[in-house]
């Protein structure tokens, strides 16, 4: 009997109401990549359609939880996950390879991610593998126009799945939607629900693959795509006027060549979270620490919650230095860049140095905005 490997990967499946999450999940559950998976479905309202569909689709699935995830169920999701660990440890469940949480369509995904990453006991047992966001190929554009939650769902995704492409008769509209999603989230691979959204393509989005013991930093950070996006943002060829929420979301990379003292990174992350934590939708990064430069420090977080920083045993490729990818909503990029420059002592005309920031963090313009 294969033992359960901790921490157990958790995939969060999100997407707006009716986007096709359950349909996708039902298809995925027939994929061998999802054997020994527990599915947690968050139902909104009292008709348990999702639950029936899922039970039909696969045996041995544990189905729990109801109510709205973004408010009252936050506590319950934690209880549900804790209960799973308990059942594993007491042998009531033989093994558990992964968990998929389907959020309600209205939920902001951040609280779900926070409840996993922010809970001191759960964080030992689970790791966030990735966020999969389903976007309706027909109604996706209108949903992004109307609901900032939908924009956030797309922005924090590690994988975007376009659903109902078979119903999309407007080819130009579909390619505009793709371009728009690419703009909101430059790094997540975009897959077609009916064609290439397989278990293998959607799962194992994390940095470190325990099976192969390798880490693919570049694709985890989505770095090249982020750089490309950054240039595009500053180009003058783009017309945003009818996408009112899209411009609020930004994805950018902070880079520092050479090692950084642990205390500087700690201070940067503390200041960032305490001043603008709720605007930080997602952060991922790899850091060359001055005290131990051969073992990169890996950080990732959702809003104010940081996953406990972990060390990789070695640098997986030629990449060195510090790369932090931030996905933000309404956050002053300039402030973040200045703060980062200050703590890493990168000279700049009007930015105080690290000593000055330690003395008075308010010295950075934008600190209180
Ligand atoms: N033609 C077509 N229909 C789809 C596809 N995906 C989903 N649907 C249909 O769209 C409707 C909504 O799909 P669901 O999977 O229930 O969507 P959901 O995101 O789980 O919905 P909520 O749980 O209500 O937020 C259903 O009638 C599905 O049959 C698709 O790829 N093609």
From TrEMBL:
It catalyses: GTP + H2O = GDP + phosphate + H(+). Residues 226-245 are annotated as: Disordered. It comes from the Bacteria. Pfam families: cobW (PF02492), CobW_C (PF07683). The keyword Ligase does not apply. Transmembrane segments: none annotated. Residues 249-344 form the CobW C-terminal domain. One of its GO terms (cellular component) is cytoplasm. Keywords: Chaperone, Hydrolase, Nucleotide-binding. InterPro entries: CobW-likC_sf, CobW-like_C, CobW/HypB/UreG_nucleotide-bd, P-loop_NTPase, Zinc-reg_GTPase_activator. GO terms for molecular function: hydrolase activity; nucleotide binding. Belongs to the SIMIBI class G3E GTPase family. ZNG1 subfamily. Zinc chaperone that directly transfers zinc cofactor to target proteins, thereby activating them. Zinc is transferred from the CXCC motif in the GTPase domain to the zinc binding site in target proteins in a process requiring GTP hydrolysis. This is GTP-binding protein.
């Amino acid at each position: 009997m294969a033992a359960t490997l901790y921490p157990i990967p958790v995939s969060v499946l999100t997407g707006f109401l009716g986007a096709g999450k359950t349909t996708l999940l039902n298809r995925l559950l027939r994929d061998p990549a999802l054997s020994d998976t527990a599915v947690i479905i968050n139902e909104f309202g009292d008709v348990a359609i999702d639950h029936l569909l899922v039970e039909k689709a696969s045996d041995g699935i544990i189905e729990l939880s109801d109510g709205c995830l973004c408010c009252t169920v936050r506590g319950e999701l934690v209880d549900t996950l804790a209960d799973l660990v308990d059942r594993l440890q007491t042998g009531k469940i033989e093994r558990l390879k992964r968990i998929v949480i389907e959020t309600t369509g209205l939920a902001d995904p951040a609280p779900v991610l926070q409840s996993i990453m922010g809970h001191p006991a759960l964080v030992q047992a689970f790791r966030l593998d990735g966020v999969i966001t389903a976007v309706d190929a027909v109604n996706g554009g209108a949903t992004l126009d109307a609901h900032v939650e939908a924009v956030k769902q797309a922005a924090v995704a590690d994988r975007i799945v376009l659903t109902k492409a078979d119903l999309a008769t407007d080819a130009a509209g579909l390619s505009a939607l793709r371009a728009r999603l690419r703009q909101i989230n430059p790094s997540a691979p975009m897959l077609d629900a009916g064609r290439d959204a397989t278990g293998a393509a959607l799962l194992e989005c994390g940095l470190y693959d325990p099976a192969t013991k390798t880490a693919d930093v570049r694709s985890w950070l989505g770095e090249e795509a982020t750089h490309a996006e950054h240039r595009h943002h500053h180009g003058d060829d783009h017309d945003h006027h009818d996408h009112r929420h899209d411009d609020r979301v930004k994805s950018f990379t902070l880079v520092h060549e050479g090692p950084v003292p642990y205390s500087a990174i700690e201070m940067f992350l503390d200041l960032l979270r305490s001043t603008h934590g709720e605007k930080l939708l997602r952060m991922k990064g790899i850091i060359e620490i001055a005290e131990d430069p051969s073992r990169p420090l890996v950080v990732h977080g959702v809003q104010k919650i940081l996953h406990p920083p972990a060390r990789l045993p070695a640098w997986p490729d030629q990449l060195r230095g510090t790369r932090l990818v931030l996905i933000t909503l309404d956050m002053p990029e300039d402030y973040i860049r200045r703060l980062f420059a200050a703590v890493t002592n990168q000279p700049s005309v009007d930015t105080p140095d690290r000593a000055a920031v330690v003395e008075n963090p308010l010295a950075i313009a934008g600190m209180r905005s």
